[in-house]
Amino acid sequence: TQGLPTKVIGQNLVYYEKTDSTNSLAKKLANEGAEEGTVVVAEEQSGGRGRLNRSFLSPFAQGLWFSLILRPPFLPMEVSKMTLLAAVAITHALRQQGLECGIKWPNDILVHDKKIVGILTELNASMEKINYLIMGIGINTGITKKMLPRDLKKTVTSFAMENIPVNRTKLLRDVFCDLERYYFEAEKEGFSPILEEWKKLSCMLGKEVEVVMPDRTFSGVAFDLDDSGNLLVRTDSGVERVLAGDVRVRPI
Ligand code: BTN
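# biotin complex -> structure
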């Protein structure tokens, strides 16, 4: 972290060659009182976790696999907006590297419909207060088609697969800086400018989507976010408000 131009994020950096999941490790450290901005980074995860109980492929040195411990002064119900904030910050950092990417609600980052970044936010809170928030981020840098299991070949990409050279250390620094910039902005000014930015960076608004919930599925056109960061989808029978959580949204 020498010379890292951030105030908080990454100033306490915990590095592992290999761990099961940086999110799990970060949770443990947070329970032991780790300070705000602590980052756990690993070269390889043997049990990388994704949203909706899925696993997340994280082979040795082929990506940035890391988790941030935050203790934001927000209400627990604002957590989904923190996830949108992370997607905005990372998209910004990736575009600076020359990668044409956009955000798929709530927080996948895609290049030409293929996923290059996944974000898994985990919360420890009471009704009134966030104790801590773990923000787990996986960015595929060196992954090649050969490394991917067959079911992921058509849906996953990386800097290498997009032929964009990348320096992992520099990218990690840029991501820390952008995350911190937006985080401080949210603390000062609230989330509305960030939600507006999200809309600009989204590759989903205006498109026909299918929403898969545990109990039902419907389709419509995703057209906006509301003030809480929920996705608004226009269907034949009216407007549906889609909350993050057990939801899968896919373009059709
Ligand atoms: C998703 O796409 O569903 C979210 C994937 C999140 C992956 C990252 S990699 C670092 C951190 N540790 C984990 O076990 N998961 C997150």
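# post-check
The pocket of biotin is lined by residues 21-23, 45, 48-51, 54, 56, 58, 65-67, 108, 118-120, 136-138 (CB under 6 Å).
The mean pLDDT is 94.
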